[in-house]
Every structure is written in structure tokens, then in C-alpha cells.
């Protein structure tokens, strides 16, 4: 069953793993997100909801047009950079480490 979405005032239809739309720019954006594995009605609905959410659009429901929720981020900064904990300070506040510690003026 085809699923309709509306993005930027243009309507697009997703069916059998392909998008159809009159606007070439929107069609290109949707084709970049296409999931060819979406073959069942539930998979088509899920993919259309994802695409509409990514582009800030609406999805057609039996009750009318509804705002598609923005999906969670697929990649997070924490996936590449582990969270850092501050290094514990060793010694007293008066101790100066490193080579430049020799040049510090002592009180």
C-alpha cells in the first residue's frame, strides 16, 4: 500500500521501495534515504515515517496529516570519542610538575 508524505509543501509517495514525486529536488533527497528492503506495508509505513521525520515533514494517516517525529541520531559524538574524566591531581597545590615547574616563583 503506498504511503504519502508531505515535505516543503510537496507530496511524495513511497511504494515497493521507490519514491515518486513531481519535485526533482525532494525526490533526490528522498532517494538518498530510500530503504529498498521495505517490502511489506508495515516496513513501507516505517520508512516513510522516518524519511518524513528526517526532512521535517508530515505523513498521511486515516485521520489526516500528522507531523512526523524527528528520529533519534544514528551517530553520536560519544561513539567516536569516549567521555573524559578529569585527571586526579596528585600532590599538593604547591607542587609544580614538568620542566616549567622549575621556573615558577615559589612563595
What does this structure look like?
The chain is α+β, with helices and mostly antiparallel strands and 107 residues long. It has a domain at 3-72. The chain is 22% helix and 21% strand. The chain is built from two helices and five strands, in the order E-E-E-H-H-E-E. The protein has a five-stranded antiparallel β-sheet, with helices on one face. The radius of gyration is 26 Å and the shape is rod-shaped. Residues 88-97 have a biased composition (Low complexity). Residues 77-107 are annotated as: Disordered.
Q: What is the H-and-E element order?
A: EEEHHEE
Radius of gyration: 26 Å
The biggest beta sheet, please? 5 strands, antiparallel
For the termini, the CA-CA separation is 80 Å
Number of strands: 5
- Proportion of residues in extended strands: 15-25%
Number of helices: 2
Percent helix range: 10-25%
Molecular shape: rod-shaped
Main-sheet strand order equals 3-2-1-4-5
Average pLDDT confidence is 83
Low-confidence stretches: none
Given the helix and strand composition, which structural class is it? alpha+beta
